[in-house]
Amino acid sequence: MNAIAVPPMLIEQALPSFDAVRAEHRIVRGEVTAVYDAVRRADFMRAWRESPAVRVLFSARSLAERAVSAARGRAVAEPPPPASLRLADLTGNGEWVLLGEDPPREIAFGAIGRFWGGETIWEEIDAADFTTFDRPGYGRIACNFSLRPYGSGHALVSYECRTQATDPAGRRASLRYWRPLSPFIGVVLRAQLGVVAAESDPAGSARFC
Questions:
Q1: CA–CA distance, 8 with 28 (Å, rounded to integer)
Q2: What is the pLDDT of residues 83-115, one digit of tens each?
Q3: CA 202 to CA 5: how far, in whole Å?
Q4: pLDDT digits (tens, 9 = 90+) for 52-81
Q5: Alpha-carbon span 51 to 68, nearest angstrom
Q6: Per-residue pLDDT tens for 17-66?
Q7: Region for residue 151 given its phi and psi (left: phi exceeds 0; alpha: psi -120 to 50; beta: otherwise)
Q8: Where are the beta strands (DSSP E) in the chain?
Q9: Which residues are registered as beta bridge partners of 168?
Q10: Virtual CA dihedral for 62, 123, 180, 55, nearest 10 degrees?
């Protein structure tokens, strides 16, 4: 029997090897095409506004970054949070960029920066440069939502986040950051899957947890 060829996922093309990964999954009411549309239009700021756990985690991170900056004698002005955060609004240029779409199967996005050591710095990039970026001292983050049918009238939505540093020192530093925080990153991913579920089925009982 011949094996069925499975095309590579967008996230595999963007970041085929990685240092760390976290994935969460949720069964969402709706046909795959409709749920994919919900993924694109969902406002992920809802997770920050409506999930107490997510607010606590981001507040703790903000306090930690301010403490590190103060210890280093630097004052950091935090930008206000965006009014909304939707994948449909991502482009191929910016801090977070759209890496590709394969509707209704997958949407991938990513960023490059330094997200360890107490201070987060994002680079403004072009999506076309994401896979080849290799400047030392940085890390790449590739994320995706992937979808597949699940029974009748439901979709299984997976949210994956991969990271890869551009040099050995950055790899060691980023893994020291990632390992203790991975469970809390999972909380954020699950909350954002809750936003997708609520967007797909507004009359349902989705919760951001």
A1: 24
A2: 899 999 999 999 999 999 999 999 999 999 998
A3: 37
A4: 766 665 554 554 444 444 444 555 556 677
A5: 26
A6: 999 999 999 999 999 999 999 999 999 999 888 877 666 655 545 544 44
A7: left
A8: 20-29, 93-94, 96-102, 106-114, 121-122, 125-126, 139-149, 154-165
A9: none
A10: 30
Identify the burial level of 52 via C-beta atoms within 10 angstroms of its C-beta, where 0-12 means exposed, 13-18 middle and 19 or more buried: exposed
Q: Do residues 140 and 112 make contact, with C-beta atoms less than 8 angstroms apart?
A: yes
Average pLDDT score over the chain: 87
The Cα-based distances of 28 to 59, 119, 186 in angstroms read 29, 35, 18
As a 3-state breakdown, the chain gives helix, strand, coil percent values, each rounded to 5, of: 40, 25, 35
Query: Do 129 and 166 touch, CB atoms closer than 8 A?
Result: no
Against a cut of 0.85, is the pTM above it? yes
Please state the three-class secondary structure of 80-113 as a single string: CCCCCCCHHHCCCEECEEEEEEECCCEEEEEEEE
Phi and psi of 156, rounded to 5°?
A: -90, 115
Radius of gyration of the chain (CA): 18
Tokens 């989705």 label which residue? Answer: 206
Write the Ramachandran bin of 203: left for phi over 0, alpha for psi from -120 to 50, otherwise beta: alpha
Q: How many residues does the chain have?
A: 209
